[in-house]
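queue> holo job accepted (nicotinamide-adenine-dinucleotide)
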Amino acid sequence: MRFDGKAAVVTGAGRGIGRATAECFAEEGAGVVLFGWHADVLEETAAAIRAKGGRCEVVVGDVAKREDVQRSIQTCSEKFGRHDFMVANAGIADFVPFLDGTDEAWEQQIGIDLKGTWLSVQESARQMVKEGHGGSIVIVSSTNAFQPEQEGVFYNTSKSGQVAVMHTAAMELAKYGIRVNGIAPGIINTRLSWFVINDPVQSKIFLDRTPMGRFAEPVEIAKPILYLCSDDASFHTGDFMVVDGGYSVGLPVPNTLDEPLVPGGVR
Ligand code: NAD
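queue> job finished
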């Protein structure tokens, strides 16, 4: 199997994209630390992995707290003998009109998605350098990093900031054999996106401009994450992989006339 003898930390592994990523790692032989702040869903993920013969450990904590992130990485090295992969995935989505945003909401979103990512990447890389075998880190950002949504000032800012963390880390960590990449999912069928998927007006707006005409399942993000961690991606670093069914390619403007929009083209 691709990841036999290797070990990963996945943040936000109790649900959604994190859970699918942890399950895929375990199916391919890796030991996985399931890190997150809801013990119940982490234990459910662990039970599903163990039922299939996979290896995992649960660490409950807050990705915005350095000591909790350190504990997840220490657990990885202690229980599985090494730390090869970090998937910085934990996140929240707080959407609010620009004029109504509060300091508390800013600090919460930026604390979890942006500071939490920086802590996860830094602590992970420190351990990889100490162990001396390199590794691969994937940050789960969003298409919001480059295509912001209205009322998403906190989310848009944290997601574009993650790309800056990724690019900077990629430059500085390559000399240690550590690759750092990002993923930009479109709309994925998870709890975080239910407010879009379950709203007929919002979901239509997104689906109308997604060439593939559907939302994705979490495993469709997990597999590209595993690719970026694998040796098949040995020359990928500082890369931002968009996985969105074509959503961000452009704005579809259908021709509603009965004749060509510009007969013969513009000359
Ligand atoms: P989700 O809500 O299903 O899962 C998020 C997980 O993060 C949860 O298990 C939650 O407990 C955990 N978490 C939240 N705050 C935490 C903290 N402070 N410490 C530790 N764990 C914490 O959502 P998801 O859709 O799987 O989101 C995963 C990532 O994917 C997020 O970073 C999100 O921004 C990104 N993303 C999601 C979508 C989408 O459409 N679902 C699109 C683009 C990007």
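queue> The chain is about 45% helix and 15% strand.
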